[in-house]
Write a structure and sequence with these properties.
The complex is a heterotrimer of chains A (286), B (500) and C (512). Chain B is built from 18 helices and 26 strands. By secondary structure, chain B is of the alpha+beta class. Chain B has three domains: 24-143 and 292-365, Periplasmic binding protein-like II (D-Maltodextrin-Binding Protein, domain 2, 3-Layer(aba) Sandwich), CATH 3.40.190; 147-290 and 371-408, Periplasmic binding protein-like II (D-Maltodextrin-Binding Protein, domain 2, 3-Layer(aba) Sandwich); 415-498, Sandwich (Immunoglobulin-like). In chain B, a hairpin with a 5-residue loop joins strand 9 (198-202) and strand 10 (208-213). In chain C, helix 11 runs antiparallel to helix 17, helix 12 crosses helix 15 (357-386) and helix 19 (462-471) packs antiparallel against helix 20. Chain C has three domains: 1-61, no CATH class; 65-244, no CATH class; 264-505, MetI-like (MetI-like fold, Orthogonal Bundle). The chains are: A mainly alpha (286), B alpha+beta (500), C mainly alpha (512). Chain A binds chain B through residues 47-52, 71, 132-133, 136, 141-142, 222, 225-228, 239, 242-248, and chain B through 35, 37, 39-41, 68-71, 73-74, 78, 81-82, 85-87, 240-242, 245-247, 256-257, 260, 263-264.
Amino acid sequence: MEQKRHMGLKTLNRVSNTAIYILLIIISVVWLIPFVFILLQSFRVESTYQVGYVIPHEWGWQNYLNLWNSDFKRWYLNTFIIALASAVLITIIQLCMSYTLSRFRFKMRAGLMRFMLILGMFPGMLTMIILYRVLSDLGLTQANAVPGLILVGVASSGMGYYVSKGFFDTIPKSLDEAARVDGATRFQVLYKIILPLSKPIVIYTILTAFMGPWGDYVFARYVAFGTSAGYNVAVGMYSWLTNDQIARMYTTFCAGGVIVALPVTILFLCLQKYYVEGVTGGAVKG
Amino acid sequence: MKKLFAIILAVAMVLSLGVFASAAGSELAGEYDVTVWAPKAAVDLTKQQIADFNESNEDGIIINATVEEVSEADAATNMITDVSAGADIYFFAQDQLSRLIQAGAVTKLGQGAATFVTENNSAGSVIAVKAGDDYYAYPLTDDNGYFMYYDKSVIPEEDVDSLEALVADCENANKSFSYELENAWYNAGFFFGVGCHSDWITDSDGNFIAIDDDFNSDNGLIAAKGIYKLVSSPCYVNSSQTDFASGSAVVVTGVWNYATILEQLGENFGVADLPSFEVDGESYHIGSYSGCKLLGVKPQEDPVKGAALNRLAQYLTGQECQTERAASPDDGGMGWGPSNKAAQEDPACSNPALVALAEQNAYAIPQPNIHGSWWDIAKVITTDIKASDGSDEALKAALQKYEDSISAVFEMTDEVRNAFTVIGTVAGTNWDTDLPMTADGDVWTSNDAFEMEAGTEFKCRQGKAWDVAYPAENFVVETAGTYHVQLDAVSGEVSLVPAE
Amino acid sequence: MKRYSDLEYLRLSKGQRFANKLAAFFTGIPGAIGRFFIKIGLAIKNGFMALVNEIKDILSTFIHGDWKTKTSFVIMGFGNLTRGQILRGLLFMLFEAVFIIYMVTTGGYWLSMLPSLGKVGPTSEYNAVLDTYVTAYNDNSFKILLYGVLTIFFIVAFIYTWVVNVKQNKLAEQFLKSGKKLKSDKDDLRSMVDEQFYKTLLALPMTGILVFTVMPIVFMILVAFTNYDGAHNGFSNNLFTWVGLDNFNTLLSWKGGAGGGQSYSATFGEILTWTLIWAFLATFTNYFLGMFVAMMINKKGIRLKKMWRTILVMTVAIPQFISLLYVSKMFARNGLINLSLQSLGWIKEPLPFWEDPTWARITVIVINIWVGIPYLMLITTGILMNIPADLYESARIDGANAWQQYRKITLPYMLFITGPYLLTSFTGNMNNFNVIYLLTGGAPTNPAASGAAGSVGYTDLLITWLFKITTGAESQYYLASVVGIMVFVVVALISLVVYNVLPSIKNEEDYQ
């Protein structure tokens, strides 16, 4: 009797596992299909417009050559600079902010957090016009859009402190107190004790800050309007899908998509572990 | 700045007073930093043409141009973002003109420039740059219309003139018919084809003051039935893209897709003017808009730079440059159909698509200035027709809703819509001001008494539109005097009542 | 509403308890509003009293202070300088100097123009000789409003600093009188990395937030009370000016005006309804399906766990403008999906993914699942692994099947931990611009609301509508502002409700 039941469970388990494998395979296919398609179409050279099939009839590098001969290089460099600068500066700002709000108890703290919560409820889209004007007065639009975009991105990044604050909250306060008793200043506590423990959240912040600018379209377009030298990849490539260009640039768009997605994806996969720790550790508890 | 301006003005005055009759030119000598926005296809050629201008102009103008790639469809949106940071000279599609004027992003042409435009360009393109009594831009092309490309392997030659036959061919071959009817630019063609009109009236500041529109009429119903024939078919696709590679046999679009479609269809390439559709035994040829690409100059604070820019714009829209643009892509051009009358005659400026466009132009309406919201309002006609069951009532309802939306643009209340007004050369106005009337039963009397000369003309119209207006011919005053205008709204009889 | 004793309450099921709490919340609203106003009244009273005290204090400082203190009322930082706090003194003086120079040179102008937002618009004159029109730009309403607001910010900051200056003088005087030593510059600097370290850390981020978030929001709220739009851009055509509450009347009145015979308020209501439905579905479909996928991958005996995760996670890495634009084209009428289904003979007519309102709405939600599952999978994986294994063990011994285990253990645990996340995710989805903009751009068009600023579609959220209003043919910035304020009100209300119903959000210290 006992034996039989055990066997039953095992078969049941096997059946359900098989079902799960089938499901997972289907899911994987669904998730990967668009990317595989983009990759395949980026090698299609017999035509440049949208077609009703996926596998190219003729393969070649023509679309990548087109990229090389267009302003894409400039857009890519712009985006890379923005991403790099954002990664460094946003990380510093967010860590300052979240560490302070996690560790210090000062008079305005609760009020400050509530204030930022309320600020966050305003749709950011609204402030686009005014931010443009401010940047314009500073001379940071159009051809100089890159520093402008960095400035705006970094300046408002303090609002996104929740995730890393959630992480800092999980580091026991007793560590700080012990160090303080030993005569360390607050700065030394941060520098010598907390930071070394915060590797996952630091890498998580760097990674998300680095990835953000690659997809930034609406505001970037607004700031760099009409000046190719100030475009990022999203703004530049979006123009290839407009009515008057899509017939000639569709496959080039696919090639551009591959070039943009590759490094970000590889970086992401390498640092995946930290990203997972970041979202699970911080995002939920913040 | 103002001082400098005064000095320049004074110098200019002195010079113009005598010695050098043609001296204005030499004052323009100098270098100018100029930003130019051109669509992607035109960037290289425009750079070349500006270099040619620098060499050839006799005024000593040197333009240091930065040519940026901005599509003519996005020019207005970009200019309006920030006029002061926008381009000095830019290509734009004509439907954006009123937005640009309103935003103060395009300069009014001087008398000389206006003459240059009116003398050298086709009638349709001259209408396109006019707002009120003034001219605001230089025509670049006269080819912004649409016609039909088709796949000869699916569509037999004899079917291209009939919408019904085309739809049947597509359905039988399980192919699509791409016609972007959920876009007012395209669906209005059906209405023009049956003789309807929709005209917006602007003042000189680019502000819209009225609309004269009869889409909601018996003729309009015929157009709606025509639209229903296509949109109710499973082969209909709301698109004006180069869809031949993805299953279309007919695509209604313009010259800009000529090269791509030629490549897609190869030997099966076919192009023709739009077909006719049949309602109650009558055949109606589908109409279209004919439109232009224009070149705008941004208002300048420095008169000298402004003048230099206008010279450049005249050069870029002159016969030579338009001919260069009309050349096929293999010869360094873009295949754009010229607006310049001399260039239009030139056989070098033609290709099959332009020929089809020219045929279609016989049924086309030159695109006037149109209120921005009209596009959003009018495209819905198709959406509503598509959702309807095709019955007369349903189609009428769609047109009625369109009319209601249009009236709401000017926030016309029912009261205003039903009221009669006097308009004409009355009381110092010149067919531009509606003078109020008050009703007593069916008899309407003007609120004021007007002093009228003999020969003063006027009409009484309803709802500030021309659908209902009396008398049919303008009322002409025979004896000078001070009168109230009176109208019997039932009989349509207009009379003058001498004021005490 | 029934009131329960503690014992009764504990006997209730989960659902009943929740219903009870919800009911308690809503029946409590009138009282809460009353208390809210009493609170505001008290706050005003307290604020007023504090102000009076402050002024009294400042006056008495002036009367009783020595000459150094008195001079500091005019020359800020003078007291600090003469009492040996060189650094503080110099900073105060510098600030005062900058303030005075700014106010005299430009600030005064902006402030004086603020009530009118400019008087003279641009003019244009014909120059017959050069055959060209010459434009002269004059006042700029936009700049007046912007710098006017900044100037007010600056004045408030100055007054605050001045009060701090006075107080410091008073304290310093008292300190010295009682024979204590004042903090030296060195002490000041040290405290910046120690007790006052938080000020150092916050200085930069808060300045950024103040200038690039708070100030623009204040500005845009003010725009809602002007007629700033494409026809009144304040510089190159017409100046704009204050119009009071007109714009709110336009949006909220039931009279026509939006076209299609439908009023703005009806259009707004329709979009709001869809926005809420969308946010609800987008949040919860992602949540449960993400959890489901995570549980499948986590299941004992499933191999290649890391590979499955990696495949899913890749979609997080690829910029949305690429993946979503591509997917949007795939679902188009002539797109890959329709064409392949047709060539397989499964369908005759193409499926109206983006043409039919209901299809389009379902399609965006389904594609949003595709976007969201990987992220949710990551989040839930971590939490699922944290659920103590012995809970399941004992449940299994009690004979609970998989579904019961999920209902009784997994779900409650997850909901408790992720409550706050669900809330932010919900409000985030309400403002999920990217997915809608890149997939449909709001299409298909809603005929009833066709005339409403920028052509409203069936998949438009409030945020995409706001964008359309801003960039549409008429650029009605003022209306966009009003809609933005409405979005804020809705989000704030929802957050308020949820905060009060969900216990786990309230106490942040619980987590530490």
